[in-house]
Design brief:
It is a single chain. The chain is an all-beta fold and 110 residues long. It has no helices and 10 strands. It starts with a strand and ends with a strand.
């Protein structure tokens, strides 16, 4: 069955960096666009970044220039590099394609 397992979430200070990873299994990873979304506390889930099968990327305005999505098809893994983190980036981050992962918590606080 489809499985998406996120990792890399942590508590980080404002201005810091994190790299999230999502390992996929149970489906042909290379033929799916992959996405990262996030859900801040008390708010709706929002799409953060998308990467197509050809490597084209798209970002939410709130993260463009600070976050980078990438993929390694040989490892069935999609990444989200997050730089210049702000307190408003605090959220549970989800990887999704044909299904959703369980999420990983990112907290940005001093």
């Amino acid at each position: 069955q489809v499985q998406l397992v996120e990792s890399g979430g942590a508590l980080v200070q404002p201005g810091g960096s994190l790299r999230l990873s999502c390992v996929a299994s149970g489906f042909p990873f290379s033929i799916y666009s992959m996405n990262w979304s996030r859900q801040p506390p008390g708010k709706q889930r929002e799409l953060v970044a998308t990467i197509t099968t050809g490597g084209r990327t798209n970002y939410a305005d709130s993260v463009r220039g600070r976050f980078t999505i990438s993929r390694n098809n040989a490892k069935n893994t999609v990444y989200l590099q997050m730089n210049s983190l702000k307190p408003e980036d605090t959220a549970v981050y989800y990887c999704h394609g044909p299904d959703w992962g369980q999420g990983t918590q990112v907290t940005v606080s001093s």
